[in-house]
Automatic annotation (TrEMBL):
Catalysed conversion reaction: 5-(methylsulfanyl)-D-ribulose 1-phosphate = 5-methylsulfanyl-2,3-dioxopentyl phosphate + H2O
Origin organism lineage: Bacteria, Bacillati, Bacillota, Bacilli, Bacillales
Cofactor(s) the record lists: Zn(2+)
Stated role: Catalyzes the dehydration of methylthioribulose-1-phosphate (MTRu-1-P) into 2,3-diketo-5-methylthiopentyl-1-phosphate (DK-MTP-1-P).
GO cellular component: cytoplasm
Domain Class II aldolase/adducin N-terminal residues, every copy: 8-196
Record note on cofactor: Binds 1 zinc ion per subunit.
Stored Pfam families: Aldolase_II
The name this protein goes by in its record: Methylthioribulose-1-phosphate dehydratase
Quaternary state and interactors: Homotetramer.
Binding site for Zn(2+): H96, H98
Chloroplast found in the keyword field: no
Length: 209
């Protein structure tokens, strides 16, 4: 089975996210559908330093997350989340990263179960082009039991592109292409960093007045 093109695409995305330092402490995992095999996708191998580029970065798994080729590599511990995305939508790529900004936002808004962005240019990345459009990013608890986490996560996969925050853990985004998934990830991180800067400056101004 040939998946060289998808391997190179995911590898290039991985390299860009690594340049942003979004894989601290081996965190993060990435997946892309293997075009020639509709029931298969490439996923990052578990526990690797994703800043490094190696011949063992990804392995091919089926839609239940089982390896399709003989390998000593283990699929990402969070492969189940990617399987839900590919089973429930037409998404082609999903990306998961831990950043300080997405963790802090998930904790600040975790009790509300979501964060809403409005009057922000970058929500257009999610197709929100109207004057009063809102982008709602759900926030789910960080269940240690991965099947429970994945099942909770799956309830929010109702479109072919989207984003979900996992509280004090990270974000998972998915899209109809690698380009779209990366765009949503970058837009989300921009919005999180903006929100944190705004809250911090507001509290400084309040303290001074
Ligand atoms: C030490 S990073 C935390 C991991 O448990 C996990 O959240 C993660 O994102 C990476 O796990 P991985 O199994 O390498 O895909
Ligand atoms: Zn993670």
């Amino acid at each position: 089975m040939s998946y060289q093109r998808e391997w190179e695409e995911l590898s290039a995305i991985k390299g860009e996210l690594a340049e942003r330092d979004w894989f601290m402490g081996t965190s993060g995992n990435l997946a892309i559908k293997a075009g020639s095999a509709p029931g298969a996708f490439l996923v990052t191998a578990s526990g690797k330093d994703k800043r490094k580029r190696t011949a063992e970065d990804f392995l091919l798994v089926d839609l239940d997350g089982n390896p399709l080729e003989e390998t000593k590599l283990k699929p990402s511990a969070e492969t189940l989340l990617h399987t839900h995305i590919f089973k429930r939508s037409q998404a082609v790529c999903s990306l998961h990263v831990h950043t300080v900004a997405n963790n802090v936002v998930s904790e600040l808004y975790g009790d509300q179960g979501q964060i809403t962005f409005k009057n922000q240019e970058l929500i257009k990345a999610f197709g929100k082009w109207g004057q009063d459009d809102e982008l709602i990013i759900p926030i789910i608890p960080n269940y240690a039991d991965i099947p429970t986490l994945a099942s909770t996560f799956s309830h929010h996969v109702d479109e072919d592109a989207g984003a979900v925050l996992i509280r004090n853990h990270g974000i998972t985004v998915w899209g109809r292409s690698g380009f779209e998934a990366k765009k949503l990830l970058e837009a989300s991180e921009f919005l999180f960093q903006y929100q944190l800067s705004l809250l911090s400056l507001k509290s400084t101004v309040q303290l001074q007045s």
